[in-house]
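in:
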């Protein structure tokens, strides 16, 4: 039987305005996380449709059960991120166009690629999540704690559930397709697509969210973009567009931890990779224990303070 649990969460995004700059101490991370919310809606819609298409290809009933639980978890993530993004769109109506463009990227992928490719896409991308999210969750004191507790709690919940189902996408892929060579061959185009979708979101942020609210150039996370912006300052004949400072989300984190995460990303794409062997963030265990004990995980940092008043 699957060990995944489907948890329905509501984070109070309709209660009051949702800020774009939800962690004022780290505008670059605020922007990056907002881009993840936009991407999650399109990606997880694709995942739900893909799993439904793939289940007839799976003969093992336990894998079918795993796929169903994985699909339902991803569906809950999409619902919660829609609430977050709806709050941003309410404040910046032009972001509806950005969301539509992001979803269209994944709808096009669904309509133009075989299920084999989308299974590889999901397995490759999901395999990177544990090392990346461990880096974030291990540094929650600077990345999440200072921010709007609704947004911080949304991402902490999403990321610990990604850790929980860290093996699911690969299990489904291996049962339905079973070719590490195919998965590796598809990886370059898969990650090009991921970065293209994130870029669509960030371009939308630069266009529709005033710099006073962003405080950074949302595209600064792309090394190629930073290089081109520097090149434009050196060559006056190239027209430059100043969208704000070139801040990056993880510059303050220990370099060693960043390199460990990068190594984990590379390892995740190798043949016979087993996410079950990955070192997990301590915060994930704490989250599951608190949730089981009835703690209000939708207000991760403030619930305990309010209960003690």
């Amino acid at each position: 039987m699957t060990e995944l649990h489907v948890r329905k969460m509501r984070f109070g995004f309709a209660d009051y305005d949702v800020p774009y700059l939800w962690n004022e101490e780290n505008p670059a991370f605020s922007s990056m996380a907002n881009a993840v919310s936009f991407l999650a809606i399109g990606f997880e819609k694709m995942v739900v449709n893909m799993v439904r298409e793939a289940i007839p290809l799976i003969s093992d009933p336990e894998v079918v059960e795993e796929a169903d639980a994985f699909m339902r978890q991803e569906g809950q993530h999409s619902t919660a991120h829609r609430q977050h993004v709806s709050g941003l769109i309410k404040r910046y109506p032009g972001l509806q166009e950005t969301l539509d463009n992001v979803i269209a990227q994944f709808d096009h992928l669904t309509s133009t690629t075989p299920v084999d490719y989308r299974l590889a896409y999901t397995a490759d991308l999901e395999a990177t999540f544990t090392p990346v999210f461990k880096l974030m969750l291990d540094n929650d004191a600077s990345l999440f704690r200072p921010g709007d507790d609704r947004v911080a709690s949304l991402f902490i919940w999403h990321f610990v559930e990604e850790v929980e189902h860290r093996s699911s996408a690969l299990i489904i892929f291996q049962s339905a397709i079973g070719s590490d060579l195919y998965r590796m061959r598809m990886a370059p185009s898969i990650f090009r697509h991921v970065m293209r979708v994130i870029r669509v979101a960030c371009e939308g942020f630069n266009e529709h969210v005033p710099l006073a609210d962003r405080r950074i150039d949302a595209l600064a996370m792309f090394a190629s973009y930073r290089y081109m912006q520097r090149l434009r300052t050196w060559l006056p004949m190239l027209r430059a567009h100043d969208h704000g400072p070139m801040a990056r989300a993880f510059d303050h984190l220990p370099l060693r931890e960043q390199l460990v995460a990068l190594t984990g990303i590379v390892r995740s794409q190798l043949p016979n990779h087993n996410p079950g062997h990955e070192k997990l963030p301590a915060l994930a265990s704490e989250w599951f224990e608190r949730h089981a004990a009835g703690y209000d995980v939708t207000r991760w940092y403030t619930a305990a303070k309010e209960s003690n008043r």
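note: Residues 254 and 302 are 27 Å apart (CA to CA).
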